[in-house]
Design a protein that fits this description.
312 residues; alpha/beta; 2-enoyl-CoA Hydratase, Chain A, domain 1; 8-stranded mixed β-sheet; 50% helix; 16% strand
């Protein structure tokens, strides 16, 4: 387990427990009572810490490298997944993965950002930062789902769209705008889930949905706290202050009407018990799909329109 900076006291207790267990294994010393006491203390410290996380600390949790990623969610609750690649114009962007599958008994189109979980896969998936061809692939898959009357599920986890020169030359802003427009025009239900970091237009392009779910310790904002701090204070060191002001947490965004439902995470974040987090999200998505699938095209569009007009 990789511990974050604010978790260092918990890490020290866990290290002490590990040392005691090694001592016990090396001899006949009975330290179970002492170990149990330290474990209880570490558990209480973990509960107390995560009960009062600051927005900046939540941002760190949302970015934790060991959080589940798109491929983990697909493996966990999407049956018979069939990936569909390419934008039929330029290339296949590995930062966005999409395809057909089943959640429960419902056939769906699943689309989302993939960040990767080690150096090789992070480079392959460009750290989840999509290029124009990624958003055009998403548009193609959403339109395909609309044609065959399949609900669309999107899983958002990106710091933002790729800001490179080549992406801009290929129409990054236009691709993001068209993807957002497609989300809003779909005649089938669209359910989005912010599973980690939802950053900038790169996130909104897949999240203009009928229902927006958000993990308890995920974050969602128009710009990263570091980017905001660099603009306002000319230094990224003010990122914690920016995170406080920007209302990036699930709890704040639920109050503002930007998201519709918070999905609880295991104690200490989704990275501590990935299987539990994946199951919780799968169950929540299944409930949302069942609630929306019977709606007709006009109602689906009107509901989505009313939702976004009401924000703010």
């Amino acid at each position: 387990m990789t511990f974050l900076d604010f978790e260092k006291p918990i890490a020290e207790l866990n290290a002490r427990v590990a040392e005691l267990r090694e001592t016990a294994d090396a001899g006949a010393i009975d330290i179970e009572q002492q170990v149990a006491s330290l474990e209880a203390k570490a558990d209480k410290m973990l509960r107390d810490t995560y009960a009062k996380l600051t927005p900046w600390q939540k941002t760190q949790v949302a970015r934790h490298a060991q959080r589940p990623h798109l491929r983990d969610y697909i493996a966990g609750f999407v049956a018979d997944f069939m990936p569909l690649a390419g934008d039929r114009a330029f290339a296949d962007d590995k930062a966005i993965i999409g395809g057909l599958g089943r959640i429960g008994e419902r056939r769906v189109m699943v689309i989302g950002h993939e960040k990767g979980d080690d150096t090789a896969t992070r480079l392959k998936h460009n750290f989840g930062m999509a290029k124009p061809e990624g958003y055009r692939k998403a548009i193609r898959l959403m339109e395909l789902a609309d044609r065959f009357r399949l609900p669309v599920v999107t899983l958002v986890d990106t710091s933002g769209a790729f800001p490179g020169v080549q992406a801009e030359e290929r129409g990054q802003a236009e691709a993001i705008a068209r993807s957002t427009e497609t989300c809003l025009q779909l005649g089938v239900p669209l359910i989005a889930a912010i599973v980690g970091e939802g950053g900038s237009g790169g996130a909104v392009a897949l999240a203009a949905a009928n229902r927006v779910l958000m993990f308890e310790h995920a974050v969602y904002s128009v710009i990263s706290p570091e980017g905001c701090a660099s603009i306002l204070w000319r230094t990224a060191e003010k990122a914690a202050d920016a995170a406080d002001a920007m209302k990036v947490t699930a709890q704040d965004l639920l109050k503002l009407g930007v998201v519709d439902r918070i999905v609880p995470e295991p104690l200490g974040g989704a990275h501590r018990a990935p299987a539990v987090a994946i199951a919780a999200l799968g169950a929540a998505l299944g409930e949302e799909i069942d609630a929306l699938v019977a709606l007709d095209t006009a109602t689906v569009r009107q509901q989505r329109r009313a939702k976004f007009l009401a924000v703010g």
